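Deliverable D4.2, example record:
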Amino acid sequence: MTQTTPTATRLPLGLRIVYGTPVIGRIAREVSQDVNNVFYLLVVVITLEILGFLLWGPVVFTLTALVLVPLMFLFFVAISWPGRSGPKS
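Output generated by the structure prediction step:
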């Protein structure tokens, strides 16, 4: 007899860790389903920056830049990681 129910494939460990993170996981799952959700996230982040500026002043921009430093470091490591470059002729 054949199996008629589809079996769920298990996600890789990296995706399970990202999807399991409470706030980031939800955003990552929604972006993986529809890429246009990134624009909604961008509007929310800009709105939070403006509201933070109105409440605390320019200190918010310094703190935002401070938070983005490790993310930029990871970005630079990711784009310079060998192995996924184009074909070498």
